[in-house]
Design brief:
169 residues; mainly alpha; 7% strand
Length: 169
Amino acid sequence: MPDWLTYDFVKDFQTAIVGVIGFTGVILTLLVNAILARHQHERELEAKRRTVRAGILAELHAFKGMVDRNLEHPGPSPGNHVAIPRVRRLVSNHLIGDLGLLPPKQQTGALEGVMAIEDLSRKLVLVASSVSDDHILVNETGHELVNASYTAAQAALSDAIAALEADET
C-alpha cells in the first residue's frame, strides 16, 4: 500500500480513529475499576466475616468461662441464697443480623450458642427466688436446678465454640 494512501486514510478518518482509541480507553478503565471494586468488596466482606466470627466466638468463650466457674461454686448453705449475675448477651445482639456471612456450619454453631445463652437465662429466672435487673437469688433447692441448667449450657456452648473454631473457608 503506498504511503500517500495510508496518509490519506489517516487524514480522512482521524476523528474516527481518535474516537475508537478514546472509547477503548474508557471501556478498559471501566473494566479495571469494576475489577478493583469487586476485589475491594470481597475484602470488606471477608473483614466483616472475621469480625462477626471473632465477636460471637469471644462472647461464647466468656459465657462458657462463666458457666465453668459457676459450676465450681459450692452453692448456698441451708437457709441462705446465692446471688447469680443475670445473663446478658451484648456482642451477639449486634452481630446476629450478619450471621449469614459465616459458612453454614459456623452459622449453625453461632445460633446454637446464642440460643443456649438465651435458654440458660430463661431457666435461671424460672428457678430464682428473686429476680432483679442485675442478678437473681437462688436458694439451695434452686441451686441444683441451676447446676443442671449450667451443665446443659456448658455442653451446648462447647459444641458451638467447636463449630465456630472449625476451619471452613
